[in-house]
Amino acid sequence: MSTPADDFAPLFDTFASRRYFRKFEAITGHLVQVAGVMQAEGALTRAEAKVVSRYLLALTYSFRALSMKYLMVGRETGRFFGSLQIDKRDSGFPVSTEVLIMANDAQQARGHLGNMPSVEQYKDDMIREIIGERALPTRLQFALSQRLYYEELARGNLFWVRNDPECQWIGNTGTDRRRFLLHWAVYDSQVNLPVIYLMDLEDTGRTALPKDEARWPRAQAHLMAQSLDALKLVTIAKGFDEDFDDLHPKRLRRIHVGPMYSHTFTEQTGPLREVLEEAHAPEGQDWALAWTEEELESERTQEERAGWFGRVEREVFALDPFGARGAETGATRTARSLILPQRPFQVLSEKAPSGFADVRKFVVGAQGQVLRYG
């Protein structure tokens, strides 16, 4: 039986670490294009695609910051600094502890930057060491990488372990009925994956939800407490519906970004590993990334008694109608997608492993364009 220590792998090698970050920089860039393709197909509205793209860009910035932090890993920097820990078995992403530490560093970024020389000063010092002492300025390079790391953190807009709910007004469906899009995200520590939540909500309260000083903080706290991968969507939606008599969740979606499969960096088992092994793709193209969207829709409403004389509106959610799958998944439908470069896609098409026929494929072309297949 494997332990978490067996599942996690440190990237001690400088070149391996840099290849890993270059790979993810390309992948996250393609994901923004995938969101655009989904919008064009009608799978996401314009507002939803904008929200999802924002989280994906935040993920890009987080990886960029981590790449600066570990830029000099494996080099003699004068002290043991550690290395990036990735989940090699389940997700292919950095372990959640990395994101937690980064959030703590972000709180102190301004202080660190105020006590460090400028980028230009570091470069001047490195030139003097190279010319004057004829030595590699490794320690100065390390110090500069840390400054660049804190600069990325200070810019903000990164993907954190908790990205608290935000509320966007969509329109009114009646005189006292407002429609909102709620969105939030987490870096789930159980699966080491970024997870994005979208909720279509109708508000019948006296004060609009984002301006309600009593309900909005409660709603935010409730949603964050329930944002666990182990919880089914129907459990989350029903709990929210029952806790707030005047907030009505009409649709709830959960997007799992990952796992990432790589012949070089991960040890997942199954058809995708075999596909990547046989593809012999060049550096930067030996990967595949899963994208799973769970969706729960309200089928109808019904009234229930509340107190002695009151009645409240409750949602009745539609579960997957095919056999017992709805009860098992707790969702109306689940859509699986796979994003991968051309060569692995060709091998996947030739092998045609079972279970992939109903998976949407987004293929990254030679020029970086993303096309939908299947």
Taken in chain order, the helices and strands follow as HEHHEHHHHEEEHHEHEEHEHEE
Categorize the overall geometry: globular
The proportion of strand residues reads 25-35%
Low-confidence stretches: none
Which structural class do you get from the secondary structure elements?
A: alpha+beta
Largest sheet features:
9 strands, mixed
Helix content: 40-55%
Specify the number of helices: 12
What's the number of structural domains? 2
Rounded radius of gyration (Å)? 24 Å
Walkthrough of the structure:
With 374 residues, this protein is an alpha+beta fold. The protein has two domains: 4-155, no CATH class; 162-373, no CATH class. It is 41% helix and 29% strand. The protein is built from twelve helices and eleven strands. The strands form two sheets. Strands 3, 4, 5, 6, 7, 8, 9, 10 and 11 form a nine-stranded mixed beta sheet that branches. Strands 1-2 form a two-stranded antiparallel ribbon. Strand 9, helix 12 and strand 10 (360-364) form a beta-alpha-beta unit. Helix 2 packs antiparallel against helix 3, helix 3 (46-69) packs antiparallel against helix 7 (138-155) and helix 6 (119-132) runs antiparallel to helix 7. The longest helix is centred in the first third of the chain and has 28 residues, at 14-41. The radius of gyration is 24 Å and the shape is globular. It starts with a helix and ends with a strand.
